[in-house]
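Case 382 in the screening queue. Each case pairs one protein sequence with one candidate compound; here the compound is guanosine-5'-diphosphate. For every case the pipeline is the same: read the inputs, emit a complex structure as tokens, and attach any notable structural observations.

Predict complex for case 382.
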Amino acid sequence: MDLFEYQGKQYFARFGIPISPGGVADTVDEAVAQADAAGYPVVVKAQVKVGGRGKAGGVKLAADADEVRTHAGNILGLDIKGHVVKRLWIEHASDIAREYYASFTLDRSAKCHLGMLSAEGGVEIEEVAATNPDAIATLRIDPVDGLGLDGARAWVARAGLDEEAREQAAELLVKLYTCYTEGDCDLAEINPLILTPDGRVHALDAKVTLDANATFRHPEWEEFEGSDVEDEREARAKARGLNYIGLDGTVGIIANGAGLAMSTLDVVNQVGGTAANFLDIGGGANADVMAAALEVINSDPKVQAIFVNIFGGITRVDEVAKGVLEALSRVDIGSPIVLRLDGTNAEAGRAILAEHLSDRLVAEPTMLDAARRVVALAGGQS
Ligand code: GDP
Ligand code: MN
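Case 382 output:
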């Protein structure tokens, strides 16, 4: 789960990482109120989950309330790489002497944590990596050993951070490492990490990705959830515990197993259709799951026809067939459904459905036949 900058900074603050005072604003008036509270000059910053906001005009300095009005008005509603700005973060502006880069992430192949530190921050790290890779000091950290102050001191020296920044930077990096490990982040990145002319080191930006697998031990993450769900269908699916991803097409898809679901998208595409979603109902899906899946797909106004593609393994097709019938008795489905049921107990499953088949509930013997049928029902090739 990616966090917005302001959430990332709030997360940093819990671990004692210094940030600038500020607050969020959803309107121009709120922006001015937050700027008054933070103290001028301020920075008005677009809150979107994409990098390069500065270059895109989403980060502006403001010396007084009038400038805050102008910038907040311009940035709210701005489209940055397909992300529309709905919220701003306003913070007290810092004077910058030097911009550094710092991050922790997982190095899967080396089976350890990877720290990256550079005295050349501010610009995108990919750019530094491409043009001047020696400017990035990497550090592989064994999770059992962790990162202590001595290790961090050696690291900041190796990265060539300015003398006066080193001790504070080392302390900050230990805190960032704690945030990354104890805070269960997949990524904790600060770019730029700055040194001010009066000798303070602090985080000017925050890019944090939380490890969703650790959600169970972080009840406090609840506040982060939902803040980025832009797709109502995905929110609905999530509430029902479904593995769903919204897409733009007209064929609703339900399959068991992620591999089969992806293949189903491919086959629908192959015969000229477009998928409205990815939805994997998993193994052993019962009537409740099938009903929930049909409900979510049914709520998508773009869907013209639904493709239920089940290959029974541990999941028994007769159970799935019962599930489909029960789901249909509970949910009023607006689109025709094409079923392809194969695998364990397929014969029994088809027998259960036989008397219920109609032009609204169609069975096809193969995946390809079913794809052709459902695409035709959805209005033909797009
Ligand atoms: P990004 O472009 O999405 O990475 O957004 P950042 O938060 O990193 O801001 C982009 C750039 O704006 C930074 O690299 C800084 O150069 C500049 N910037 C951000 N905050 C301040 C600030 O408080 N004072 C000054 N002088 N510049 C800032
Ligand atoms: Mn940045």
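Case 382 observations:
- The first strand starts at residue 22 and ends at 25.
- The domain at 21-92 is CATH 3.30.1490.20 (Dna Ligase; domain 1).
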